[in-house]
Amino acid sequence: MQTFEAITGRHGVLRYRSTPVEPERIERVLQAAVAAPSTANTQPWEFVVVTDPPLVRQVAAYLVRTQEEFVFRRLLEAPEAFVAPLIRQYDDLGQVPCFIVLCRHQRVDLAPPAYSAVIRDWDLCSLGAAMANLMAAATDLGLGTRWFGNPVMDEGGAFLKRLLGVPEAGEIVAVTPLGYHDEPAKQRPRQPLEALSGFRRGDARKLAALLRGKLALDEVVHCDRYGRTCGEA
Ligand SMILES: Cc1cc2nc3c(=O)[nH]c(=O)nc-3n(C[C@H](O)[C@H](O)[C@H](O)COP(=O)(O)O)c2cc1C
Questions:
Q1: CA of 211, closest atom in ligand 1
Q2: What is the SS3 assignment for 157?
């Protein structure tokens, strides 16, 4: 697969096969992750690779619980009638063979305390770059991923930290399943801007519109000056 296809072909996969992922492939996606840029090369990341079946099942069950309670009910305020069909999409997560948990770990005392918020923002950018690399490499290898940020909403992932023995100073930022899957490439229709500007929490149709498609380049790209269309005279 070409690099471009690996990047643009990625989509968030929810339905996995239970086939184990070969250790060499897990190592390869991690190699891609740690090749990412980071502030002053501080590499503020750590990865917990979970493949032990009982642990994997606990992580899956936890992500589904957190999705239902924190994302669907509290954050998106989805009407109760929609919570059940929404959460059914996560039914197969229990058979995922592997999860990768991405943690922030500050190893370098890079800047004075006055800049700690800046450093945290930069660390999260670095972790995002690492995760994007990991996901592209996984797509290249025929593996699916999906970014789960929901543990952050639940006491900063305290349950997962305890379950996996992550030290107090470690901060769980994201979790992704990693596994083979049969989900077809996702359709990426052009998404109208109104899908975002018209979003209303608690409205299931607005949520569906928000999740469908991607904005066109000309909605998000400006040339030379903000608001100037590329190719404009
Ligand atoms: C920071 C971040 C947090 C996310 N958290 C969740 C989550 O908790 N649960 C979930 O199902 N998807 C989560 N996602 C996945 C997004 O919903 C998904 O990427 C988005 O709908 C676009 O779909 P795509 O990944 O197929 O392009 C998260 C993505 C990001 C970048």
A1: 21
A2: helix
**CA pair distance 183, 91, nearest whole angstrom:** 14
* Smallest CA separation from ligand 1 atom 6, residue: 148
**Residue 31 to residues 14, 28, 117, 222: CA-CA distances in angstroms?**
24, 5, 28, 34
Distance between Cα 60 and ligand 1 center (Å): 16
pLDDT band at residue 14 using 50, 70 and 90 as cut-offs = very high
Check pLDDT > 90 for residue 202. no
Q: What is the pTM of this model?
A: 0.96
pLDDT digit string, tens, across residues 123-147 = 999 999 999 999 999 999 999 999 9
Q: Regarding the domain delimited by 3-177, which CATH topology (the fold level of the hierarchy) does it fall under?
A: NADH Oxidase (3.40.109)
Query: What are the C-alpha distances in Å from 168 to residues 30, 100, 105, 128?
Result: 23, 19, 10, 21
Is 211 a pocket residue for ligand 1 (Cβ < 6 Å)?
yes
Determine if ligand 1 sits within 6 Å of the CB of residue 65.
no
Residues of the chain with CATH 3.40.109.10: 3-177
**Are the CB atoms for 102 and 161 separated by under 8 Å?**
no
Total residue length of the chain: 233
